[in-house]
Write a structure and sequence with these properties.
By secondary structure, this protein is of the alpha/beta class. About 45% of the residues lie in helices and about 15% in strands.
C-alpha cells in the first residue's frame, strides 16, 4: 500500500522504512497464552508485522507464566511490541470472578492504550466483550480507523448459554456492542452464520467481512508414528479438544459415553481446561464412566500429535449458539486429516463445512442417543472415515491454510486503510482546485468556494472521485 498526498500533521512523521500502517490490537489473550484466541492472534500479528507496525495491548496469560507486578510491562514477540497489563487471574468457575479478571484488564488496557502513539487502525477483539466500545472511544480520540473483530457475539452467546442472567449486565453488553458496530469501519466475523446475525443487528452488509480462522498445515498434519495414539492401544478414540466451557454442551458427550459404556472398543478423551472442567470430572465420576479420560492442554508443539490421536473428533455447541461463535478447533482437525461430528444446528458454519465437503457428520444438539448412533456407525465403517480424513486434509490445504487466511485479513486491512487515504487524496485535490479558482479570479478561497462545483464536476467525474468528495 503506497501513501499518496499531503502528510497528515496530526500524526508523527517518522515511520519505519517499508512499514505501511501502524496497528493497535486490543485483546486480553495473546502469546504465550495457550488459549486458542491468543494463539491465533499471535500468528496473525507475526504474519502482518512484515508490513505493519504492531502494538498489542494484552493481559496476563491464564495458563503460563505469572502476572506483571506493575500496571503494565513492555515485551516483544518477534517484530510485535507487547504492552502486558497486570490483571487478576481468579478461577473462572463463577461469573463474578470471571468479570473481575476481565474488568482488571479492561481498565488498565484503556489507560495503556491512550499512552501509545496514534495508530492508523485500532483492531478491537472480544476478550473482554466490552473492548469494542473501548475501540470506539479510541477512534474518537485519535480520529483513526476501527476494525471490530468479533470472535464471540455478545450478548447473544451469553443469552444462549445462560452464562449471564443479570439484566443490567446484558443491557451493558448489548449497548457496548451496538456502539462498536456503529463506529466500526469494518466488522470482521468468523463465518457466514455470524455474518447473518451481525447484519440482522443493523450493520450494513458492505461493512461486514468474513475472515475465518486458520491452521498451519505445515505444522498440523496427519501422523502415523504417534506415541499418544499408541498409548490408547487399539481403542477407537472419540476426542473433544478445547475449552471446557458453557457453550460446548459437554454433558451430552458424557451422556453418549454412558450409552456406549459397554462397548470395550471405544474410549472418550476430553482435552482442555475451562469453567466446567471440575463439574464434568465429578459428573463422569458420578456416572462411573470408566470409558472417559480427561487430559490437560497439550503443548502447542504436540498439537499435531494430539489431534492425530483421535479416530473421530467431537465439535459440540449448545442450541441457540449458531452464529454466536465458530469453534476454531475445526481447522486443526481438518489439517490432521480426521473426520468430526458437528453437534449443532444445521445453519452453523461448522455444520455447513461438514455437510458441504463430506468431511464429517452433523448431529442435533442435546440428542445424545443420535450421537451414540453416529459413533457406533463410525466404528463399523473405517474405510468411510479414512476417505473423510483425506478430504479434510485437502480442504484445509486449499481453503484454510494459515498463509491463505492471514493474507485475506491483510487484504481487508489494506482496503480499510485505503478508504482513509482515498479521502485524504480527494480532500487534498479539493483544496488544490479551490486555490486554483482563487488565483484565477483574484479572490479569497472562501469566495472562490462557490465556484468549486463548476470546476469540480468534469474533473472529479472523470477521475471517479465525486462520491469521495
Amino acid at each position: 500500500m503506497r501513501r499518496v498526498g499531503r502528510p497528515d500533521s496530526s500524526r508523527p512523521a517518522s515511520r519505519t522504512e517499508g512499514i505501511d500502517t501502524r496497528l493497535l490490537f486490543l485483546n486480553r489473550s495473546f502469546w504465550p497464552d495457550l488459549e486458542a484466541t491468543g494463539q491465533f492472534l499471535a500468528e496473525l500479528c507475526e504474519d502482518l508485522s512484515a508490513r505493519h507496525e504492531i502494538t498489542f495491548i494484552a493481559g496476563p496469560p491464564y495458563h503460563v507464566g505469572g502476572a506483571a507486578r506493575r500496571p503494565w510491562i513492555h515485551e516483544r514477540h518477534g517484530r510485535v511490541s507487547i504492552v502486558r497489563t497486570w490483571g487478576t487471574r481468579l478461577p473462572k468457575r463463577r461469573l463474578a470472578l470471571r468479570m473481575t479478571n476481565l474488568a482488571s484488564y479492561y481498565g488498565l488496557a484503556a489507560i495503556a492504550a491512550l499512552r501509545q502513539r496514534r495508530p492508523d487502525i485500532v483492531i478491537a477483539e472480544t476478550d473482554p466483550p466490552l473492548l469494542g466500545a473501548l475501540g470506539a472511544m479510541l477512534k474518537r480520540h485519535w480520529g483513526c480507523k476501527l476494525i471490530y473483530n468479533v470472535r464471540d457475539l455478545y450478548p447473544d452467546i451469553a443469552l444462549a448459554t445462560g452464562g449471564v442472567r443479570n439484566r443490567v449486565l446484558l443491557r451493558l453488553l448489548d449497548r457496548s456492542n451496538r456502539i462498536a458496530y456503529r463506529w466500526a469501519d469494518r466488522v470482521v466475523v468468523l463465518g457466514h452464520d455470524m455474518e447473518d446475525r451481525v447484519i440482522g443487528k443493523g450493520v450494513p452488509a458492505e461493512c461486514v467481512a468474513v475472515v475465518p480462522d486458520w491452521v498451519d498445515c505445515d505444522q498440523i498434519r496427519p501422523l502415523s508414528d504417534n506415541p499418544l495414539r499408541a498409548a490408547f492401544g487399539d481403542k477407537f478414540v472419540v476426542m473433544y479438544s478445547g475449552n471446557l466451557g458453557l457453550a460446548q454442551q459437554l454433558e451430552m458427550v458424557l451422556a453418549a459415553a454412558a450409552r456406549l459404556r459397554d462397548d470395550p472398543r471405544i474410549r472418550f478423551v476430553l482435552i482442555g481446561e475451562g469453567a466446567r472442567k471440575a463439574w464434568l470430572i465429578e459428573r463422569a465420576r458420578t456416572l462411573d464412566l470408566r470409558n472417559v479420560t480427561f487430559m490437560t492442554y497439550r503443548p502447542r508443539a504436540e498439537l499435531a500429535q494430539s489431534l492425530s490421536a483421535a479416530d473421530l473428533h467431537l465439535i459440540p455447541l449448545s442450541a441457540g449458539t449458531a452464529g454466536c461463535l465458530v469453534p476454531s478447533k475445526v481447522y486443526g482437525i481438518l489439517a490432521a486429516g480426521r473426520p468430526f461430528v458437528a453437534i449443532m444446528e444445521e445453519q452453523a458454519e461448522v455444520a455447513r463445512i461438514a455437510r458441504d465437503n463430506s468431511v464429517g457428520f452433523v448431529g442435533k444438539p442435546g440428542d445424545d442417543a443420535a450421537l451414540a448412533r453416529i459413533i457406533s456407525e463410525a466404528v463399523r465403517n473405517p474405510a468411510a472415515l479414512e476417505a473423510m480424513g483425506r478430504r479434510a486434509r485437502q480442504l484445509a490445504r486449499e481453503r484454510y491454510d494459515r498463509k491463505i487466511a492471514t493474507a485475506r485479513f491483510a487484504e481487508m486491512l489494506e482496503a480499510v486503510a485505503r478508504e482513509r487515504y482515498d479521502r485524504k487524496i480527494a480532500t487534498a485535490r479539493f483544496a488544490e482546485m479551490l486555490e486554483a479558482v482563487a488565483r484565477e479570479r483574484g479572490e479569497s478561497a472562501v469566495h472562490a468556494a462557490a465556484e468549486i462545483p463548476r470546476v469540480l464536476s468534469p474533473v472529479s467525474l472523470a477521475d471517479g472521485e465525486a462520491s469521495s468528495l
